[in-house]
Automatic annotation (TrEMBL):
Pfam family, one: TetR_N
InterPro entries registered for this protein in UniProt: Homeodomain-like_sf, HTH-type_TetR-like_transc_reg, HTH_TetR, KstR2_TetR_C, Tet_transcr_reg_TetR-rel_C_sf
Residue stretches making up the HTH tetR-type domain: 15-75
DNA-binding region: 38-57
Record has Transcription regulation as a keyword: yes
Name of the protein in its database record: Transcriptional regulator, TetR family
Keyword annotations from UniProtKB, A to Z: DNA-binding, Repressor, Transcription, Transcription regulation
UniProt keyword annotation of Lipid biosynthesis present: no
């Protein structure tokens, strides 16, 4: 029993250290960029010897990939459990969810989009697969809206990427001290997105492309 308790404690300690490595790396990558950060700097921030990092991550690339995979997994999980009124329009729900989620995670957003270029090919493909899952949610909303005659996105997949790119850019410039609150930003971007795809009076649903 004592041996089992020791193993559990060791695993818990190892997990705690790995979490500290992730947090330190995220902060460093967001501040200086992935290419400028060394494993030694991350180790120093965590308070361990550089060699100790390799018990958790073999390379700096592994840390970056882990951070990005974690971000996408948490994003998809959060969407599944998001709590919005049942009567809310699906596109409004997506916009509000995306804005809320990403404004609370500026560092994760910066790394997940700006550091894609530093992923090795296999890791890039893995992350792109997860990103496409998220994009598919919005594409389906747009296509369903087009079928219902509410929206006319000319090219739903391209429109999806344009909308997500616009929404994801908000954390880069938003400041709590600015003239608009987070709620104001949500409302504004809901209007922007909906107006961009609303079916104009007299426009035929078949013009959705």
């Amino acid at each position: 029993m004592a041996a089992q308790d020791t193993k559990v404690q060791t695993r818990a300690k190892g997990q705690a250290t790995a979490d500290r490595v992730r947090a330190a790396a995220m902060k460093r990558f967001a501040q200086a960029g992935y290419a400028a950060v060394s494993m030694r700097e991350i180790a120093s921030d965590v308070g361990v010897r550089p060699g100790a990092l390799y018990n958790h991550f073999q390379t700096k690339q592994d840390i970056l990939n882990d951070l990005m995979l974690g971000h996408m997994a948490q994003l998809l999980d959060a969407w599944e459990t998001a709590d919005f009124p049942d009567h809310m329009d699906a596109l409004e729900r997506f916009v509000r969810f995306h804005v809320r989620y990403h404004l609370e995670r500026a560092d994760e957003v910066f790394i997940s989009y700006m550091e894609l270029r530093n992923l090795e090919p296999d890791n890039f493909e893995t992350i792109e697969t997860e990103r496409r899952k998220y994009e598919a949610i919005l594409t389906e909303i747009l296509e369903k809206g087009a079928q219902d005659g509410r929206y006319t996105p000319e090219h739903p997949k391209v429109t999806t990427r344009a909308i997500i790119a616009m929404l994801t850019g908000i954390p880069a410039w938003f400041r709590e001290s600015g003239p608009l609150s987070k709620s104001d930003i949500e409302d504004h971007y809901v209007n922007l997105v909906q107006n961009a795809v609303l079916r104009a009076p007299g426009q035929s649903p078949r013009e959705t492309g």
